[in-house]
Design goal:
Elements (H helix, E strand, L loop, with lengths): L9 H11 L17 E2 L2 E2 L4 E4 L6 E5 L11 E5 L2 E4 L2 E2 L5 E5 L2 H4 L5 E5 L2 E2 L32 E12 L8 E11 L5 E7 L6 E3 L3 E3 L9 E2 L7 H9 L3 E5 L2 H4 L10 H20 L6 H4 L4 E11 L1 H14 L17 E7 L14 E6 L12 H4 L11 E6 L45 H19 L25 E6 L3 E5 L5 E4 L2 E4 L33 E7 L5 E10 L6 E7 L7 E9 L4 E9 L14 E6 L1 H5 L7 E8 L4 E11 L13 E4 L1 E5 L5 E5 L2 E4 L5 E8 L6 E8 L9 E5 L8 E11 L2 E2 L3 E7 L7 E7 L1 E3 L3 E8 L7 E7 L14 H8 L16 E6 L5 E7 L10 E7 L13 E7 L3
Parallel strand pairs: 13-17, 13-18, 18-19, 19-20, 20-21, 34-42, 35-43, 45-51
Antiparallel strand pairs: 1-2, 3-4, 4-8, 5-6, 5-9, 7-8, 9-10, 11-12, 12-17, 14-15, 14-16, 21-22, 23-33, 24-27, 25-26, 26-33, 27-32, 28-31, 28-33, 29-30, 29-32, 34-37, 36-40, 38-39, 38-41, 41-43, 44-46, 46-49, 47-48, 47-50, 50-51
Length: 919
Amino acid sequence: MVRARRIWVTAAALLAVAGASPGVAVAHSQPPARPGLSTGDTPLPPGWRLAGGGSAPQLVWRSRKPVPMGDARVEFRAGEELLGVPRPAADGHTFRLPLDGRRATGLRGLEVWSGGRRLDAAETAGAASAPRLPAPLPANGVDPGKPGAYRTKTGEYGLKSVRLPSFSKPVEMRAVVVAPVGATGRRPLALFLHGRHYTCYKGRNDTSGTWPCPAGTKPVPSHRGYLRDQKLLASQGYVTVSISANGINGQDFAAEDGGAQARSSLVRLHLARWADWAEHPGTGPKVVREAPRADLSRVLLVGHSRGGEGVNRAALDSLAAPPAEQDGYHGPVRWTIRGTVLIGPTVFGQNPVPDVPSVTILPGCDGDVSDLQGEVYVDGTRGVGNGTALHSAVYVIGANHNFFNSEWTPGQAAAPAEDDFYDEPQHPDKVCGKRAATRLTADRQHRAGSTYIAAAARLFLAGDDRVRPLLDGSGKRAPSADPARVLTHAVGARRSAGFLPDGGVSVTGGKLCAAVDPSPAKACLGQGAKGASPHFAQWEIGREAGRHAIALHWTRTGTPARVTVRKPVSLSGAKALALRLFVPPNSKGTQLDVALTDTAGKKTKLGRVTLDGLPGSKRTASYWAREIRVPLPAAGRAGLDLGSVKSLELTSRSSSGRAWLMDAWGWRPGTPAVRTEALPRVDIGRTTVDEGDSGVRTYRVPARVTGRGGSGQVRVYVIDPATGKTTDRLVTVRPGGQDIDVPVEVKGNTRYGTDVSYDVLVKAVRGAVVGSYRGGITVHDDDPAPTMTVTPVAGKVTEGQSLKWRVSLSEAVDVDMGVLFAAAPATAPEVSTKDVPASWLRETSGEKPDPERPLSKVNGLYLWADIPAGRTRADIALPTVKDRVRESAESVRFRQVDLETGEPRTGGLELTGSVLNAS
């Protein structure tokens, strides 16, 4: 008897129906997980099932509580390897991931993650005691959070919807405009793009992610959630527009890049209209005609969550055009992106634009993109471009993900809204719980966000260097953001050569550690970390090359750690050495002496630094670097050759502790003019090919390199579909070249199987940018399915024996084949719940024998079989028990279930049998 090597359990199949047919009751029909039911020899964890079978197996996970629609992707992982991004069902609990047959037999260590937070594990207690906020920083001389002199005017426009590649439904062209009243001349333009949220609502509790919105529901006005930010900017003389993207949110679940390219297209379609209206002022909508003319040479893009990744892509696409077939905008670029503001952004592609300045706001209590992966928009630019663009990270202690948008904030939103940081009542988080002293109210959080958006506008669009200390790690605060505690660090701008862990260094007294590695001995945080680090946010692979930091661990005072570069670095002209360092959350008073040694062996102590950890818990990403600066001029006067420095030394002055060094730079004040260079652009495509019946064919993963010249380096990752393991290599790319060459051999056959994807990922390393980071070859199995039949092995038995049937295939195939049967009415009298073992009934259906009833009346009683790949048959058994009741023959009947509908299949297979009295 095959009880299910791949768990052909009913609910997994029926849950697929739940998403489309709300009337189908499925929760009670899910049999309990049982030891011994597995893929291969490994039991599946609770909540996991396999469904679909044949050429379309699906891995299904059901959460015990709803998973809200958000910006972070829900990911299925097997250990450290990404299996894929499942598709959510409409019930908010169920997620399904199609599997190829080669991968379906090796599912071990299954986990569900979203934004660095594990969803399928119970929450544990947070910080043991209430952490304290850091002391307020000194006030900056200029406060950009103060309203300006202009009155403001608000209005909306709606244009004809647009079609975007790979999306079947049109996307709206709707926006809200807030502009200054009485401002003369052309004014800089700030464009806002919201993130991924519910698209439609009805009343106070009913929401969905469908598009277009069904009759009787309204679109969620997410684009109106930044009016407070817009009004502040407009009062200071900027024209602002916030665009709606519900049509993308409702369709991006199938987009390989999470919708980044679609959002870029939408942003640039709006900018093209603004360029038209600037050239021909009388042609715009009423609200635009009444606003000052926009200056398209000074544009700031502000994106929240997936909107952040969207505006990052729009900045890239404005410098280097994407492949035309992937793009929804095909006109000229008549604007200049001077900077971006990214609020709690996703970065699925980990492909920041190096030569466009950016400010990334990291919410310390983000419950959606909780790994704060947006830090990659800072760290990921190092060494890629020319380094003149400032890339700032702004860490807002106590801020969550949603409250930067008033339409995602309870009590302010038109549609249902919620706090994205979910507290377990049994384990309230000491840092981010609703009553925690470190948690910000919605009003205080939004005010802080508005202030730092305005700071970016003033620096990037108005060129006012006086606000730079608020963004670049100089340790100043904007009083308008009080009482929020806001910390910053940065790379780029006037930072000169320095010590980069990825730049070829040797380390003594510490460890050159890997940002992403499954080995605790190699990983930077390793075991025992209480929380996560934004600097080490995981990508789609379990082990990533070329991302490092320097880990320090000491148990006595005076322990030195030395970082030595291969080639001497010049710190000439720098005013300070800027180190990005972090220590464990909630720690206090870590002290380190900082010293430099030049190539002549002259060693000079620069000073002593003191570090405190951020408030943090197991649920926060608080291992985040503070920028610490130590002056350099005195070292030069003491005889250190700042033009030829070979090593940096950090010596502990605490009895024990840990610290991590991200990098160290020579720093000077000021904001240089940004040099935007035409770097080679790489885009990976995807091709689908038929398997064929015979022979071997070689296909190549489509890879396009465009640009106007020069060369760059990227790292190419190739994922083996059979094992899930990844190999990587550095590739030098040139515009028009075929440097990225990934051949895929496809062997044809006539055996039925699954589609197989050969996936490739690419990331910029130096002198290049990446648009479409993911692609490959999908091999479509084009063989017909085998015929399945059922024959009785023991169709008439005596009480105490088992009924048996054999499920057979007309030929062996390359995948597991499964079939599911539901109990159905049979000729009376029927086999009853007292005629089968009570343990079998409970194990199979979750039901009890009492009250006695026919098997056809048992809720959720199914029989199933799985025929392993390469075999042609499997048996199904129904055990019976011997009783002392004299009775006539009893019958039983099971009908094949249609997995698409959850109903018995018309004309499908049947299992029938009869049980005779033993006395």
